[in-house]
Design goal:
Elements: E1 2-6, H1 18-32, E2 36-42, E3 51-61, E4 64-75, E5 78-84, H2 100-120, E6 133-138, H3 144-153, E7 163-168, E8 176-177, H4 192-195, E9 196-199, E10 203-207, H5 208-215, E11 218-221, H6 224-229, H7 240-245, E12 250-252, H8 283-298, E13 308-312, H9 321-326, H10 328-333, E14 337-342, H11 346-358, E15 363-367, H12 371-380, E16 383-386, H13 396-402, E17 406-410, H14 413-418, E18 432-434, H15 439-455, H16 457-468, H17 474-482
Parallel strand pairs: 1-2, 1-6, 2-5, 6-7, 7-11, 11-12, 13-14, 13-16, 14-15, 16-17, 17-18
Antiparallel strand pairs: 3-4, 4-5, 8-10, 9-10
Helix pairs in contact: 1-17, 2-3, 3-5, 8-12, 15-16
InterPro entries: Glyco_trans_1 (IPR001296), GS/SS (IPR011835), Starch_synth_cat_dom (IPR013534)
Family: Belongs to the glycosyltransferase 1 family. Bacterial/plant glycogen synthase subfamily.
Pathway: Glycan biosynthesis; starch biosynthesis
Length: about 475
């Protein structure tokens, strides 16, 4: 196939979360499987990997004529196409910021530019064209693409055989606004009903995600569990009825992980300062060295036997950081060490600082984000905490298992799909799970994990090894994407 993936962010050039990782890794996996693959993303700054193509395309966006340029880089078998326009420049650290009109303009522009890219960008000397062409759009920011493909092309016998897939990463964000704004998106009037949504609080309004879900030929949620949760009142965020109606074209595919970036055997962040690379065959010595190095780097007492727990992620309600805070005194009383890395809500950032200040010998709260430290926490900790209230897929639990760090997770979405609960009687499982997002249930799961770590170290080691020996690669996920029947 000729596959064109479209997203608002793409690692390593731009990233705010899991979507950036997906856009950076899935195209490479599809290319390895023999598909001609293009990733279309905004050009937020001057990326040295992207070369000026000289291609300029004029298009009408929200009532005005504008021109976009295309930069191109060929890396690991993938054609990375960066859309160049003034509205993207300088937004590297604020990808989704701005007023509603500027956000809509960027989204519409990206979708229109992506639809034109296969025709105009000479990747390898020849554009893709529309033969065996599949667009994979990601989240509401690109949900206009399936609508534009149908309304502006297929209705006029252009790209007749092109197909669109819309991937659902997070249903909580949908592109809502006044219904009158649909007219500014160059949508034919007879398509307006796709955008209409009524709720008891906001009344009738525009919903871009709804239109994309209906117009797309196939839908993919980023885990099996999330595909089901999206169809519930709690998980659908007002669009559960739409997804139930279109369940025939919805399936769940769990994200993979990029072993080129996340592998304890080759991780460059573990090659200095007392850390070391390791694999399943030398996990005991390797993890011990990384744990001691992490404790030393963060100024915690070096103790190989103390349970060391970590958290990496955004500090917000979704991630359940408050559940860690609510169990902090209990964890300290248990004699555990705790390392937290993240940024987000002011009150939760302050909680990290307060926890460290109150138990300086047992806790470190790093406010902000540091890629090297994230890798070292993943390698040095015994357990990783992910008490997310909802988690469409999640990647940190995959990284943790690959590094022999046992995840303790709330059994929702992709966490439920990827972390199999430990069964001491059958000696199975890859982590500990809990079913209710409350402090007590979370405490029970942590207590069982810590008890197993202290009293049954061989069983705990077996949990680590089962996690490490899984195939968590994007290659498997790419194979499942191929099976999305179009």
């Amino acid at each position: 196939m000729n596959v064109v993936l479209v997203g608002a962010e793409c690692a390593p050039w731009s990233k705010t979360g899991g979507l950036g990782d997906v856009m950076g890794a899935l195209p490479k996996a599809l290319a390895r499987r023999g598909h001609r693959t293009m990733a279309v993303v905004p050009r937020y700054s001057n990326y040295e990997e992207g070369w000026e193509t000289g291609v300029r395309v004029r298009m009408r966006v929200m009532g005005s004529d504008t021109e976009v340029g295309y930069f191109h880089g060929y890396i690991d078998g993938v054609d990375y196409v960066f859309v160049d326009h003034a509205c993207f420049q300088g937004r590297q650290g604020d990808i989704y910021g701005g007023d509603r009109q500027s956000i809509l303009f960027r989204c519409a522009l990206l979708c229109k530019a992506a639809l034109e890219a296969p025709w105009h960008v000479p990747c390898g000397g020849a554009p893709y064209g529309d033969e065996n062409l599949v667009f994979i759009a990601n989240d509401w920011h690109t949900a206009l693409l399936p609508v534009y493909l149908q309304a502006h092309y297929r209705d006029y016998n252009k790209m007749t055989f092109a197909r669109s897939v819309l991937v659902i990463h997070n249903m909580a964000h949908q592109g809502r606004g006044p219904l009158a704004e649909v007219a500014g998106l160059e949508i034919p009037e007879h398509y307006t009903h796709l955008f209409q949504l009524y709720d008891p609080i906001g009344g009738e309004h525009m919903n871009i995600f709804k239109a994309g879900l209906i117009a797309a030929h196939r839908l993919v949620a980023v885990s099996h569990g999330y595909a089901w949760e999206c169809q519930t009142a709690e998980g659908g965020w007002g669009l559960d009825g739409v997804l139930r109606e279109h369940a025939w074209k919805l399936r769940g595919i769990v994200n993979g992980m990029d072993y080129a970036e996340w592998s304890p055997q080759s991780d460059p962040h573990l090659r200095s300062d007392g850390y070391s690379n390791y694999g399943p065959d030398d996990i005991a010595a390797g993890k011990a060295r990384c744990k001691a190095a992490l404790q030393r780097e963060l100024g915690l007492p070096e103790d190989p036997n103390v349970p060391l727990l970590g958290f990496i992620g955004r500090l917000d309600y979704q991630k359940g950081v408050d559940l860690i805070r609510d169990n902090f005194d209990w964890l300290m009383h248990e004699g555990a060490q705790l390392v937290l890395l993240g940024s987000g809500r002011d009150d939760l950032e302050n909680s990290l600082r307060e926890m460290e200040a109150s138990r300086h010998q047992q806790c470190r709260g790093w406010v902000g984000f540091n890629v090297r430290l994230a890798h070292r926490i993943t390698a040095g900790c015994d357990m990783l905490l992910m008490p997310s209230r909802f988690e469409p897929c999640g990647l940190n639990q995959l990284y943790a298992m690959a590094y022999g760090t046992v995840p303790i997770v709330h059994a929702v979405g992709g966490l439920r799909d990827t972390v199999h609960p430990y069964n001491p009687y059958e000696n199975t499982g890859t982590g500990w799970t809990f079913d209710w997002a409350d402090a007590g249930s979370f405490r029970d799961a942590m207590g069982n994990a810590i008890y197993t770590y202290r009293e049954f170290r061989d069983s705990f080691r077996a949990v680590q090894l089962r996690g490490m020996r899984q195939d968590l690669s994007w290659d498997h996920a790419a194979e499942l994407y191929e099976q999305v029947r179009l």
